[in-house]
Write a structure and sequence with these properties.
The structure is a single chain. This protein has 85 residues and is mainly alpha-helical. It has a domain of 50 residues. 64% of the residues lie in helices and 0% in strands. The protein has three helices and no strands. The longest helix is centred in the first third of the chain and has 26 residues. The radius of gyration is 16 Å and the shape is flat.
């Protein structure tokens, strides 16, 4: 029973991750770009998603505080009150 529940949760999370990946690909423009430029832009956006996930799952309050993790890794400040960049 617990194993089935965990597997269902894993399946749900994988579907969400794949949907986000598809969205990133769709929102990375292709007009007037080479395949290399598209790849680099896509991987940059995907890397930002991975970094945001790592920071969101960190154990420190406010994603390691705006002066540490998030703003240092992205170059954008994070408002700890609102969670907005």
């Amino acid at each position: 029973m617990a194993k089935d529940m965990l597997f269902g949760e894993l399946r749900h999370r994988m579907k969400n991750l794949l949907a986000v990946t598809q969205s990133i690909a769709r929102h990375t423009t292709t007009n007037g770009r080479t395949a290399k430029q598209f790849r680099d832009d896509f991987l940059g956006r995907f890397g930002a998603l991975v970094e945001a996930q790592n920071l969101a799952l960190s154990k420190s309050p406010c994603w390691q505080s705006s002066s540490n993790g998030f703003s240092r890794s992205t170059g954008h400040p994070l408002d700890c009150q609102t969670g907005r960049v």
